[in-house]
Amino acid sequence: AQPKKEAAPKKEAKGKEAKGGDKKEDDKKEPTPEELEKMKKDKLKKVVKEGGKRGVEIEGAADMGGLQFFCTSVDLPEGDLDLLIESMKAMNAKSDPTEEERKGGSGHIGKMIFSAGTEQLAVVAYVPEAKQGELNCAEWLKTVLDSQGGKVQSEAKDVSTGFVKTNSDKGVFPLKIREPMIIEANNFLRKKGLFPEDDSDDDEMVFGDDDFPSM
Q: For residues 77 and 212, what is the distance between their CA atoms, to the nearest angstrom?
């Protein structure tokens, strides 16, 4: 039922002034602070839900394949780093066995998460404490970002973040570079002996790929 509410301001905008196409654009851009706050909260809720679900999938796939690290992409943060961090927290949250729908549970698995938006591809790397002796989180992220000329935003032993800006002149588009970067991340792990050798299509173990955010 959530999205219906968001659609309401658009209807209003049409009624106000359906003359020029530009005018509609202006109306669309001016929700009240309260509406903005609500949209933000709704969005965060959806991001956390997607992250929680993905955490369960990662835990299952990692256990099955004996993986300690996992690279994946999520759609809903749409390239927003802050939201991508929230998504990661939801993936790593402890599963509550009393809850009907399991969420999270993958805090023991290192991961690199990608989210494509129109402006940029956001990337968050996470290395659990137990794995920090084997893998330098900042170095892992920097290597992957460097492959596409990205920038590191923050570095720490456990969580490092960065992004690659869209650059149409150079043919750099978030959805286009996401796959090669996931492969780059996995290859870095392989070199350190932290990821299975590529004897099959391991790189295809990427969730959320057929549902590209509609651009």
A: 12
